[in-house]
Amino acid sequence: ASAWSPESGAGLPHCQLCGQRVYPLEKQCCNGLIYHRSCFKCHSCRVQLEGENAAMLDNKIFCPIHFFELHEQLKATSSKVVNGDFDCQRPPTTDRIRSVSC
């Protein structure tokens, strides 16, 4: 694998949604997966999210409102237990923000 360089973008990870290269300043991590901040949107309402306000279910990103709505619908119609993961955060920019390992 090539080392990262600004000119070529070689060695950069690719966004899980659009497949394009993700540069460090546009990086959003969730569950160890990498996204562009602009691609990191609720699957239902398409609102752009910050990691700490996101949940994942079946590899889809949801805002808390739509995650809980979906969770309640699935609980009512299925015996399958549904677990969402709210452990998504941006790469650290201050001491108070911690990143999920990407």
TrEMBL record:
Locate the LIM zinc-binding domain: which residues?
13-73
On the tree of life, the source organism's domain of life is: Eukaryota
What keywords were assigned to this record? LIM domain, Metal-binding, Zinc
Annotated signal sequence range: none
Entry's SUPFAM superfamilies? Glucocorticoid receptor-like (DNA-binding domain)
* Zinc is among the record's keywords: yes
Pfam families referenced in this protein's UniProt entry, alphabetically: LIM
Q: Which residues cross the membrane?
A: none
Q: Which GO terms describe its molecular function?
A: metal ion binding
In Swiss-Prot or TrEMBL terms, this protein is called: LIM zinc-binding domain-containing protein
Give the organism, scientific name. Answer: Macrostomum lignano
Record lineage = Eukaryota, Metazoa, Spiralia, Lophotrochozoa, Platyhelminthes
